[in-house]
Every structure is written in structure tokens, then in C-alpha cells.
Amino acid sequence: MESEKRKPYPSDLNDAQWQILEPLIPPAKLGGRPREVDIREILNGIFYEIRSGCAWRMLPHDLPPWQTVYHYFRQWKGDGTWERMNRELRTKLRVADSREKQPSAAIIDSQSVKTTKVKGTRGYDAGKKVKGRKRHILVDTMGLLLIVLVHAANIQDRDGAKLLLNKAKGHFTRLRLIWADGGYKGKLVDWVLKTHGWILEIVNRDKGVKGFQVLPRRWVVERTFAWLSFYRRLSKDYEVLTETSEAMIYAAMVHLMVRRLAFNTQPAGP
Fold first, then answer.
1. Measured between alpha carbons, how far is 171 from 183 in angstroms, rounded to an integer?
2. What is the pTM of this model?
3. C-alpha separations of 74 from 43, 158, 225, 228, 258 in Å
4. What does the alpha-carbon distance between residue 146 and residue 208 come to, in Å, rounded to a whole number?
5. CA distances from 43 to 4, 82, 246 (A)
6. Does residue 150 fall inside a structural domain?
7. Measured between alpha carbons, how far is 228 from 233 in angstroms, rounded to an integer?
8. DSSP letter string over 166-196?
9. Domain for residue 173, yes or no?
């Protein structure tokens, strides 16, 4: 295989990680040309691009052609493969941590990021003074991604939360409680309960405390954003379509989780 002939990159899948991901790869379509590409190398190309932050056309020449790598990324975006991988790996990590497959509690938050000169949805977040988009995420108590929605930055957190939670409807049957910061207080609390039957609990800052403060439960989602910050493609939103931005985030979480799973399942030494 190609991956055995070249010097590996830090973002490459090792054998243990590939063994976990391989069963989650969609099979080749019936009736077409037989699949000739090395899918492990395709994934290595995708993870290199997201981790390094380079443009697709600037992928190293010892990886598959950028057009082929991008084709598979786009195909898996369209057929839901990235979301399915995220779900399967999250379940494996939760079970490995002696938890239920689905969470009963979650944390919601948003992150405003700048966009570039490419066309697409964008807006101005007056609070953060950022022109671009918002990444709205819902994570479990381990900080693992449940669902993500990318929208214009001028959409208020309470309105963006409605869009995100509507998207999550029907996917998490055990979910009962969601923690959020003060930006989500108000009518949204009643809306969440009436519309979805979930309790939205606001975690407020202590009055009189200035500067940074670690808030109960809230730090979990902040840590998830910190994990994503290691993937330089996510430093800004470079994508034309918000759906592509979401797929990038799912793919980054897939890379993060498969590395953690492989590390946790390594046999102990003598």
C-alpha cells in the first residue's frame, strides 16, 4: 500500500486506528468501476488537510491526487458518512467508559468564527465583534459531539439553539437535560420544554467575579472547542456551504475519537 511506501505524517492513521475505521467505510457502489484507490490513504489525505489547514490543491504529492481525496470527502458529506462515523465512534467511547450508548444530559454552546472572501452565508456577531459564522454544537458530558449546526453569526444564540435542537429531535431518545450559559436564558427555556420535553438549565456566572471563571458543566463544551482548535482548517470558516463546514467538524471529531479509541484499546505492556 501507499501508506507503507512513504514517510508517515503525524495525522496519518496507524494500524490500530485504521482497524477501527475500516468497517465504517461505505462499500464501493455496485455496477461501476472496481474501487482502485487505497481508502486508508484517502482518509490520511482528508485528515492531513483538516489538521494542517492547507488548501485541497496543496496536498502533498505522496498522498493521492487532491481531486480524488476531495471527491471522497464530498461524497461522504452528501451521504451522511461523517455523521454516522461520529455516532459510531462516540458510542464506542461511551461504552468503553462504562456509560450508556446515548446520553441523558448534554451541553450547548456556540462559537463565532471569521469567514474568508469566498461566497456563502455570513453575518456580523455584534457581541463578539466577528463577521462570519457561528458553530452551534451539542456535546455529551464527555465533550463528544452529538450534533453541529453552522449558521450566520448574526443569528442570536437563542434562535440558533432552536435550529440546532430541532435538528437533534428524534436522535437522542434518552436526552432529558441540557446545560447552557446565560446567553440562552429567557423564553427559550420554556420553548425547549414544551417543544422537545427537555429541561434547559442555565449555568450562570457568580456575581461579583471578574475575569475568567470555570463554570460547572460549561467547561466541557469549551474543552470541545479547544480540541477542535488543533485542526487548523477550522481556525476560520473557509467553506462556501455551511454543510461543508459541518462535515469538516464531524471529520475532525472522527479523527480525534479514533485516536483516543485506539490508544485506550492498546494492550498493556509486560
1. 25
2. 0.92
3. 12, 31, 24, 20, 20
4. 34
5. 15, 11, 17
6. yes
7. 9
8. HHHTTT-TT--EEEE-GGG-SHHHHHHHHHH
9. yes
Residue closest to 180 by CA, chosen among 200, 161, 160, 150:
200
Which helix or strand (DSSP H or E) is residue 253 part of?
A: helix 242-264
Which amino acid, 151? H
The total number of structural domains that make up the chain:
2
AA identity, residue 97: D
Strands 123-125 and 130-140: antiparallel
Do 70 and 110 lie in a common domain? no
The whole-angstrom separation of Cα 48 and Cα 45 is 5
At which residue does the C-alpha cell 485516536 appear? 259
Question: Which position has the grid cell 490520511?
Answer: 44
- Answer yes or no: do 148 and 199 share one domain: yes
pLDDT tens by residue, 71-130? 999 999 999 999 999 999 999 999 999 999 999 999 999 999 999 988 889 999 998 899
Phi-psi region for residue 185, left (φ > 0), alpha (ψ -120 to 50) or beta? Answer: beta
Domain extent for 73: 2-78
Do residues 162 and 228 both lie within one domain?
yes
